[in-house]
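Because discrete structure vocabularies remain unfamiliar, we turn briefly to a single example record, giving the amino acid sequence and backbone structure tokens:
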Amino acid sequence: MRSASPLPFQLQHRTLPGAICLALALISGSASLSAQAASPVSAVAAPSIPAGPLAQALSTFAERAGITLSYSPDVVRGLSSPGLAGGGSLEEGLATLLGSSGLVAHKTPSGYVVLPAKTDSSLELDPTNIDAAGTQSAFAPVPGYFASNASSASKTDKPILETAQAISVVTAEQIADRNVDRVQDAVAYSAGVRVGSSGLDPRFDTISVRGFDTTMSADFLDGLRQPYNGWLSIYGTEAYTLERIEVLKGPASVLYGQISPGGMVNRVSKRPSLLAKNQVEVQGGTNDHQQGQFDIGGKLDEDGDVLFRTVGVYRDAEYDIEQLDNDVSLIAPSLSWQIDPDTSLTLLAQYQERETAASPMLYQDGDYLTDFWQGDEYFDKLEQRQWTVGYEFEHAFNETFSLQQNLRYGQLDTTNQYLQPDGTITAGVMDRYAVGVYEDMDSVTSDTRLVSRFATGDLQHTLLTGWDYAWYDSSVLYASGPGPSIDMNAPDYHQPVGKPTTALVDQDDLSQRSGIYLQDQVELDRWRLSGGLRRDWVHARSNDNLYGADSKTSDSATTYQLGALYLFDNGLAPYASYAESFLPQSGSNAGGPLKPTEGTQYEVGLKYQPPGSSAMYTASLYHLTQENVTTRDPYDPLNTVQTGEQVSRGLELEAVADLSNRLRLNASYSYNDPEVTKSNDGNEGKDPKDVPRHLAALWLDYNLPFGLGFGAGARYTGSVYGDDMNTTKSEDYTLFDAGVHYDFGASLDGVRLAVNARNLTDKQYINCQDGYCYRGEARSVVTSLSYSW
């Protein structure tokens, strides 16, 4: 059953004060959170809440109590709350929380609304089914597709409408309605996001934003970097374990340090919440797909100060290439503890094992590109074992200062083996050689920040001062060896293949990355201003166990960010921003170690959230430049210089809306005009390879009154050049997805049967780069049966 967030009113006499109060409620920035289904609201005790800004206190109260609580941002702006020790009724708790603010909480059949105490007595709060959007938490479950808040752009729980940067949010309900396992499939409908550039390669999510790859440098979980050592040790994330996925467009080094200029993808874990529904689900489908998963949580004490949640997934499946496994086993427990009204602690852990293999990659040779896999079923594999454990801690010293610290330790072991064609095909027989990459990595990432909320005259400040640190210790053995040839007309996928023994790389790496940052978010009437700066340091050491060619590198950089946005009463919010990024590079030239690439972006845009709606419409224009790109040295053909430059100029349009309780929408269009603006390689003025100019997507989900619902979508990817000189091109393609679901209701309330299909028409498509081609994923169909309560 879907949850709605109604604000019910009946206006008997339309007096001016009453109309003003109603308008305030309808334009509310509310903690619009569904009531917990397990017990009536009256039976829930008031939770403990730390002292602080009233808006934050109300939002936290609503989340912990599991109620709908609506209020106007203008009414609570600049007000503080004395906090709440907990216990007693919700009404008593709200009264204490509001203190001497001059506001009162009115109970309605679907929750509470906060209004000025002196209102016209003729305004009665009775049901009329007027829907209004509320302000939600960026970390708690939200109903539907629309998310009002995000945390990635500011490291605070901030409305997207008030953020001077383009952000896309994929909610857990979007992930569930399309029934996707991989993060790249979940973000495929977001503006400016291109996925699948390497075709079907399930070893990692291939995601680019605004023409720049984010796979290796901008992979974040809960605001902390998921480390990457330069090879194949990349932490895997199952979409079912996530509450949401946030895609922040453009450079973000001020808050996150070393990062792709295109943006970042922040995965937000499911964590304990009274708003979370319990769920168990089983699945079966094409490609021998069998899967079971669960999401269970709740209170461990009567007051709800200690909550738990555990997510588990087991999958035994293949891809349409039957030799490619798609197996996953994971368990992700979490625990939150409200230690006292001012102090909270959340523990997050995960253990995961997965097995798959590399995607087909062949030289262009006619129809073989879409019909043949060059590996061996027994030899080819990617086996990974990973586990992480960490915490999120927060303590409020007073109404002004609060300390937040997030930390995660992780360990990842990877075995990646595959057979590679050597380029020789004789009478349909392909010659191959074996490759093995064996890695292990330990990592620690942390982020410690002081959040200061204060006023200077008419300026309301939220000042972040922080330090983040990351430590990676990894080892890599990269080896090759002989491999058997294979008859492409009668392939034998079970030939003996020896483990590669000729070491090409055997090295140990240690990297330390740290940065201090300062960001001020300022509210001045309807203006929202932001400015930030950061200083980064990167130290890396590599020990070569083969040739003794050890190396040490150190880089540092200072980056800046500025933003301005204006909020109109009608829900329009124009904005402009400037941001910078830097990204360290491996390797060296005649002048020594390569310098980091640097990114700068100018962006203007317009956001529109119709007052009282659960909808966000965004239009943005950007000019993004990456400098220090490696190019040929015109005076030394054996050397490279970093004088290259690449530019992306583009337009993005996006609409995400819960148009009604029955109809959800996610639509986007992106136009990118990429260009190599400086180069010595003869490709100046050309398009960068593998960057489409056009991307478009549309998904609609509609529910009929009697439980039956339908979802359908289309994803268009424009043509791309496959080489630097733009002499070869891969064709554009459109993929269709669809789903049908039925909620049983009545005595089977919470039971849902669904069937989802990806690439419904079984479109065959390829993407070629530098002579190699990758086949896309074929049609898949999955049936699921779930029970939620």
